[in-house]
């Protein structure tokens, strides 16, 4: 539709997730009239990510140093490890301000059709962490917080099998059920089934 | 929430129009696992736009050459000039495939509070084009297609005053009214008022 550099930029922006043709056009025209230093800051940030993002050597979360802020924080309970698929899941759980333990980022979920088996995930590192203790503290509980979808459930089942025979270790799974503010009438069968199966005695 | 380069990228992406914190995070994590050449194509496109986008010397649309594709196309009716605010408006009208004339891009709309007066818009260039003829063809009609909002209406009124005394020139304004597929009941008063005032005899 446009010519030259503008269309090139619209095309490239349109390849990003969640950016449709209209958003790409809107962003491109915003950038045309942006100050060069603003664009430079964006390209600099892109180049740093392109050159490789450092990951925490302990938990696999994105990190600036060898250990991420959470793994380096002695106030975080090292006996409680929450296993998630991706760094963005760490961010989601941190936003709840409910969890004071540590994390372990798998780097994905089991998906044999895409060639992602247990070796492609950081499962061996999880076992090493449990075996060697975390900061000298014995891991007493692993909370499996993979997504409640096909791949995440398969990963949770696999992890359960691997971890269940470790003495003194509790393995738990985050609850599935109706979202808060949700409506029973409009819940899908699977979610409602889970909500029923996961019912808890009221205090 | 994140550390180092990832958070920098999320921050920069979040400054783009229409990109909220969640989208910025999603795009950043997409880019972390993207291939370096994909990121290079995006930064290259950004750098070209940063270094300045060429505009058509005739109509002011974005262009690769001195004249844009539309101004260089002899099949486009040079006697009919559609005046728009921005290059993206040219794209919007081109998508209708209804218009076979030429364009004139003002580069904005009158907005005295933001310091945009007639001198900041390409109005002088429009008068020169009309005076000198376009490709040897006399301009017979100028269609004012500025946005139907405060600034666009003010710009249309101003242009009408400037252009109305040019002999042999028709000045028209695109119609305002109910959008197709719209609902009378939910139309705002201004739009419905315009739709009534702009009523046309049925054939």
From TrEMBL, chains A, B:
Q: Which UniProt keywords apply?
A: DNA damage, DNA recombination, DNA repair, Metal-binding, Zinc, Zinc-finger
The keyword Transmembrane is annotated on this UniProt entry: no
Please tell me whether the keyword Secreted is annotated for this protein: no
Query: Could you tell me the Gene Ontology terms of the biological process aspect for this record?
Result: DNA recombination; DNA repair
Instruction: Please give the start and end residues of each transmembrane region.
Output: none
CDD domains per UniProt: TOPRIM_recR
Return the SMART domains for the record: HhH1, TOPRIM
Q: Where are the zinc fingers (C4-type)?
A: 56-71
One Pfam family name from the record?
Answer: RecR_C
Q: Note the PROSITE patterns from the entry.
A: RECR, TOPRIM
Q: Which GO terms describe its molecular function?
A: DNA binding; zinc ion binding
Cited function: May play a role in DNA repair. It seems to be involved in an RecBC-independent recombinational process of DNA repair. It may act with RecF and RecO.
Please state which protein family the record places this protein in. Answer: Belongs to the RecR family.
Q: Which NCBIfam families match?
A: recR (TIGR00615)
Q: What is this protein called?
A: Recombination protein RecR
Originating species: Mycolicibacterium hassiacum (strain DSM 44199 / CIP 105218 / JCM 12690 / 3849) (Mycobacterium hassiacum)
The UniProt gene name for this protein comes to: recR
């Amino acid at each position: 539709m446009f010519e030259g550099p503008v269309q090139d930029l619209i095309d490239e922006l349109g390849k990003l997730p969640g950016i449709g043709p209209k958003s790409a056009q809107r962003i491109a025209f915003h950038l045309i009239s942006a100050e060069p230093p603003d664009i430079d800051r964006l390209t600099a940030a892109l180049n740093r990510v392109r050159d490789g993002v450092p990951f925490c050597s302990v938990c696999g979360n994105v990190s600036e140093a060898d250990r991420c802020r959470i793994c380096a924080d002695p106030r975080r309970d090292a006996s409680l490890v929450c296993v998630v698929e991706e760094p963005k899941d760490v961010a989601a759980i941190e936003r709840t301000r409910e969890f004071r333990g540590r994390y372990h980022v798998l780097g994905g979920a089991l998906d044999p059709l895409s060639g992602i088996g247990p070796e492609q995930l950081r499962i061996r590192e999880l076992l090493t962490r449990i075996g060697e203790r975390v900061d000298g503290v014995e891991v007493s509980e692993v909370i499996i917080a993979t997504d409640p979808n096909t791949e995440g459930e398969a990963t949770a089942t696999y992890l359960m099998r691997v971890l269940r025979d470790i003495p003194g270790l509790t393995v738990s799974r985050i609850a599935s059920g109706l979202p808060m503010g949700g409506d029973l009438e409009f819940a899908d069968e699977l979610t409602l089934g889970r909500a029923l199966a996961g019912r808890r005695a009221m205090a």
